[in-house]
Specification:
binds ligand ME8, Isoleucyl-tRNA Synthetase, Domain 1, 3 domains, six-stranded antiparallel β-sheet, seven-stranded parallel β-sheet, Rossmann fold, OB fold (Dihydrolipoamide Acetyltransferase, E2P), alpha/beta
Length: about 625
């Protein structure tokens, strides 16, 4: 059995805020890392940020910050979020780290020297949002990005290319010889089909933006984000630097390296990354675990689609554990999972408040009430004990098996087999009846011990995801956290509980209607200040067609004209700043658009009752003329 574990999340683009969809991978890897630590394996958990590229440059411009100031801000916000979410990573890499930049630039030169990278011209469509090039056949309708649906840009520029074709056969052979290289199998088959369809060499540099690592031998080129990003998995371990101990320990001499990624970045990790490693003669040590997406009822959850749910909104209302539980429980490795508030509240009530929270409160209250707050393994057995212990043993074994294989959802389900069995054991043994019968004292002791010991086993099994609840239970049982381990975990291992402390409710029951009303109200709260207006606001503007029947210069202002405008059977006076562009005589007879419901106001002493609409780019100005519609017609 392996003694070490290296697990990585993708590094998140610094351009967007973390929503619960992409926080999924980080929670899942944290659960896996905690499990491995509990198996006494030396574990290195890596996460971080992808901070270069056009997308981030644009986001920084929009925020009015330099790219560096922008990514610094996002990185510190992200770290703070992970801390709140009990994410216990060992290293947080940023692609703007000097060491990372230096190593990536060197790796690029090495690939160039070996002729694995060559200079050519790229011509094709580029999606800034996904930082990806697409061929014509891959594009969606109207040349939109096949992944995110946004418009792509046609780009033609000198570029460096990584030779992929050269390695296609070698990669296929590797995948065939390593059946568990890509998990689950459906994703593996997808990758095989993609390679068999023929690989195009990959564009790996850009000249049209600046924010990135420069090619040392040709600084006009910036290394395109995927070489930069993928290498984080090695630079974080010190690869290519003076001190590469961690690279030796966790990559070269380790059988358990896991890259956990969403299905949208499968190709990059399953094809481009191993080919880069092959070209550099670095052994492929990793396995790829590919998860689906968290969807909402209108598709993939993402900030750009406007359907994102943010972790802090859930944490502020339900606590960190509830969110970690939901993410761990709801997303199977292979498929997508649906997020809805209804489902969240249902799961919370059924599994956290009822099955677990209630169980813990009841057991601790009973052991205090009936046994003075202590429990010791007894010598009497009830007819239900064998079954309880059998389910405990199976549940421990299966939970560990599922965690080992990154089947986190199944691991939770296996543990819950036991949680439910313990609840049933209370009903079967009815301690409140035993407590009334003096002769049943020893049986009651046994039942209480079995229940408390069950809580201990459960607290260990849930510790990778319900981090706080697990600690609270163990604290109440007065068990040192250092004693907690999955190795040799067995029912009956801990034989005496001299003092069981009272405990507050772990999860208070929620009322579904209240929660739905809360989120509905939250969604209705006014949008942050923007220059957008609602349709209702726009519809308040009354625009009618008017015919200019006379026009003359304003007596006191060179820039203004005073016109009489006939609108239907009414004539209004309008003062407009158009004298620089129009001779008043040429306006007579023109039909124009007039805003007619502005409050009348005096402009340099002359009353203006409306506004004539013009198109302007500041250098030129043009009245918007109407050809056929009659004076008085409505513009809408
Ligand atoms: O792709 N459900 O970064 P990223 C589940 N920088 N997972 C989701 C999700 C959802 N609704 N939305 C996003 C990048 N993700 C690159 C990675 S790694 C060398 C470079 C997941 O911030 C997505 O599938 O766009 C991906 O695995 C991760 O969040 C990072 O996405």
């Amino acid at each position: 059995m392996c003694k070490k574990c290296y697990v990585t999340t993708p590094i998140y683009y610094a351009s967007g805020k973390i929503q619960i969809g992409n926080s999924y991978t980080t929670v899942a890897c944290d659960v896996f890392a905690r499990f491995n630590r509990q198996m006494n394996r030396k574990t290195f958990y890596l996460t971080g940020m992808d901070e270069h590229g056009q997308k981030i440059e644009e986001a920084a411009n929009k925020a009015g910050l330099t790219p560096k100031a922008f990514v610094d801000k996002v990185a510190s916000e992200t770290k703070a979020l992970w801390q709140t979410m009990n994410i216990n990573y060992d290293y947080f890499i940023r692609t703007t780290d000097k060491n990372h930049e230096e190593v990536v630039a060197n790796v690029f030169e090495k690939l160039l020297a070996n002729d694995d990278i060559y200079l050519g011209t790229y011509s094709g469509n580029y999606c800034v949002s996904c930082e990806t090039f697409f061929t014509k056949t891959q594009l969606g309708e109207n040349d939109t990005c096949p992944d995110c649906g946004k418009p792509t840009k046609l780009v033609s520029e000198e570029s460096y290319f990584l030779r992929l074709k050269k390695y296609a056969d070698k990669l296929l052979a590797y995948i065939n010889e390593h059946p568990d290289f890509i998990v689950p199998e459906t994703r593996r088959n997808e990758v095989i089909a993609f390679i068999e369809a023929g690989l195009e060499d990959l564009c790996v540099s850009r000249t049209s933006f600046d924010w990135g690592i420069k090619v040392k031998s040709n600084p006009r080129h910036v290394i395109y984000v995927w070489i930069d990003a993928l290498f984080n998995y090695l630079t974080a371990l010190g690869y290519g630097s003076k001190n590469d101990d961690k690279y030796q320990e966790f990559w070269l001499n380790n059988d358990a390296v896991y890259h956990v990624v969403g299905k949208d970045i499968l190709r990059f990790h399953a094809i481009y990354w191993p080919i880069m490693l092959m070209a550099l003669d670095i052994p492929i040590r990793f396995k790829l675990y590919v998860h689906g997406w968290i969807l909402t009822k209108d598709g993939k959850m993402s900030k750009s689609r406007g359907n994102a749910v943010y972790p802090m909104d859930m944490i502020n209302r339900y606590g960190v554990d509830a969110l970690r539980y939901y993410l761990t429980k709801e997303l199977p490795l292979g498929n997508d999972g649906l997020f809805s508030y209804e489902r969240f509240v249902e799961r919370y009530n059924a599994e956290l408040a009822n099955d677990l929270g209630n169980l813990v409160s009841r057991v601790i209250a009973m052991v205090n009430k009936y046994c003075g707050g202590s429990a010791t393994m007894g010598f009497v057995r009830t007819p239900y004990d064998d079954s309880l212990i059998e389910v405990a043993t199976t549940s421990i074994k299966n939970t560990i098996f599922c965690f080992e294989n990154f089947r986190l959802q199944d691991a939770v389900a296996e543990t819950w087999q036991f949680v439910r069995r313990v609840n049933k054991y209370i009903d079967e043994t009815a301690p409140w009846v035993l407590a009334k019968d003096e002769k049943a004292y020893n049986t009651l002791q046994t039942v209480m011990y079995n229940l408390v010991e069950s809580l201990r086993v459960i607290a260990v099994l849930i510790s990778p995801y319900l981090v706080d609840a697990s600690k609270k239970i163990l604290k109440a049982l007065n068990i040192a956290l250092d004693d907690v381990s999955f190795v040799n975990l067995a029912f009956g291992e801990h034989q005496s509980y001299p003092k069981v402390d009272k405990i507050d409710n772990l999860f208070n029951r929620l009322i579904l209607e209240d929660e739905l009303a809360y989120f509905a109200k939250k969604e209705e709260t006014p949008l942050p200040k923007t220059d957008m207006i609602s349709i209702d606001e726009f519809m308040k503007t009354k625009i009618l067609v008017g015919k200019i029947i006379s026009s003359k210069k304003h007596p006191d202002a060179d820039k203004l004209l005073v016109s009489q405008v006939e609108i239907g059977n009414k004539v209004i006076q309008v003062v407009s700043g158009i004298a620089k562009y129009y001779d008043p005589a040429t306006l007579i007879g023109k039909k124009v658009m007039v805003v007619t419901n502005l409050l009348p106001q005096k402009v340099r002493g002359i009353l203006s009752e409306g506004m004539i609409l013009c198109a302007t780019d500041n250098d030129t100005l043009e009245l918007i003329e109407i050809k056929d519609a009659k004076s008085g017609a409505v513009v809408k």
